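Internal ticket #5521
Category: modeling
Description: The requester needs a full-assembly model to guide mutagenesis choices. All entity lines are attached below as received. Residue total reported by intake: 688.
Assigned to: D.W.
Attached entities:
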Amino acid sequence: MIQRLSRWTVLLAFLCTISSIAGVPVGEELRGYWLQLHLLVASPLAALLVIRCWWPAVDTTILGQLSWWLMAIAMGLVLIPMLGWTSSQNSMVWIEGHGWLSLIAVALLGWSMRRKST
Amino acid sequence: MNNLPAILFLMTILLIGSIGTAQDSVWKRTDSDDPYLHRIPLRDSRGEVIDPSANSGSLPHLGKSCAPCHDVESASGGLHAGQGPDGRAGEPWILVDPRSATRMPLHRRKWPGLLSPQSMDLDQKKWSQEFGRHETGAGDDSDCLVCHLASGYDFAKRIEQIDSGNTALAPFVAAGLVDTSGQLDPRRFDSTAQVELNLLGDAGSQACLRCHTVRDLDEQNDRRWHHQDDVHLAAGLSCVDCHRSGIDHHMVRGYEGEVHPSGTDVTTLSCRGCHLDEDGGLFGAPLAEHRGLPPFHLEEISCTACHAGPGEGPGEGRSHVAQWTSRAHRLGEASQERLDGIPPRIIGGFLQRDDQQRIAPVHLTWPDGWGILEANGTVTLLTPTQLRPLLRRALRVRSDLVEELSDQIEGKSAEAIVVKALNKLQEPLEDGREAILITGGRLWKVNDSDELEVAASPAAEAVSWALSHPVRPARSALGAGGCNDCHSSTSSWLQDRVGPTSLLPLPDPGESERSSSPMESGIIDSSRWKIWSWLFLGREAGKIYFSICALLAISGGLLGLWKMTQEESR
């Protein structure tokens, strides 16, 4: 069961990355249909991330666990502008932080999976 | 001797420089922040001082009276007097002629959709008679007192004088220096034949509001109890604190991206420059934080979309209201005939994309009038002078076409009457040219079966100009009540339809033909908007959900990492 959820988490994390490409250029904010899609994918991913972080799969490496944890931190970063804890103009710093940290997390996840498969 | 050319060159430079200095010193200045008390003689058109006791019959001349101390030539020009670049579209003048039912927006500046004064056969004299009541004038006709006399200026008297063609004396009559027959009032002069005038560079916002008042005709809220003035005025600022200028009267208009003719950087005098730029903050203006607002809103929406225009406070959303403006509805003139429905119809608060592609509120008005559809598809409007005899003969109209015909038709369609008028206008026209009526946002003409035919035409489309006042503070702005002020199915600002009204009851082209909403006019992607409205139903719950998930995931991940490092170390 955990393994299956783990696969779904990886898939959703991948979809989240894909749907955020429109916001990758620095200073460009994800918006419109891409943002809607990103939120749609991120909603179940958030719950799966909790499961993944609390019940790590048996074969998880430290690198893998670190990447999920970074993804959770990234989710926390985006909540700062969302909850109105910063000004609109400073929001971009947090949103970009969310984006870059998520990308690093996904990259680490890919690297850990590659290491595991070899 | 070899240095002679260089010496001559230097001497020329010094001579030019000294002329410049000398010219600067022509104009008297106190260089004090304390306003100068103007106790001055009045001068006639030759610049001679007028002695009120001499009964010379000389009439005072404003330019000559101010010229000894001020650069009147520069002051009577500038953006405010119609010079300089056209810039963003502003409020048009509207030619209203009840006898021909003409209501045509026009302007000397080349702004979209507006006629030129020449096309309506308005030379300088006719223009002054028609619109001078709410215009400071330019050149020799400039009225300095209307803006700079801080007290004792009777604006209604000014309107009376200009309506009666007495443009030159209007400022003096309004200031109470001269009576309507041109006689100087000796009580205003002291023993040295000087008058005391409370003239100020900034005579307060009331001086500007004489010509720039915009009044909402809100049927639901009685203005006496519900009006909320511009937050800047309420905070003690004056119009010219933002709309600044030098003696050249190139008045800063205050919109973003404005290029000032003087070359001065006026960025800080726009909303964004003052409230969003770290270098702004004039008068300690608060730096707007917009907490919780996704930053792209500031790119997509103008400040005025949320902070200006009709609406009382948070949660009320944005609405459109019919408005009166000083220029279009002769505000400032005491009248018992200024009823809510009087033309021209101006709607304030409609949203459009501005010249920077931001969503911004505008005023709208629609043209009404008669004209000729040329063979090449262009429209030539007929002037009231051309129309009056033709319409009088065809329709027996004497003073007010709409009122008199409405009485005749008693609520029925005016199609037969309009066909009759158009046929009369058609008589002198050559083949290929068709008489037309523009009203209700459409173009009407007579077809071969002698029936009215309706068509869309750019000449009948609404004319718009930016709405920027009154400025609403953060607590009263759209969005102060949360995202749902805009993002909800009950928020009507994108869906409320606005359209023109027809002069006379004509065959109804249908609701969708008559009016449109900001959504239909394509300012945003409507399907994307609907999805957002749906998503925003769960926004607050979403915030809680994501917060809990983030908290749990971070703590769980941290715990997992700690356990793993512990196991690794074993």
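Resolution: model delivered.
Comment from assignee: Residues 539-569 of chain B form the longest helix (31 residues).
Ticket closed.
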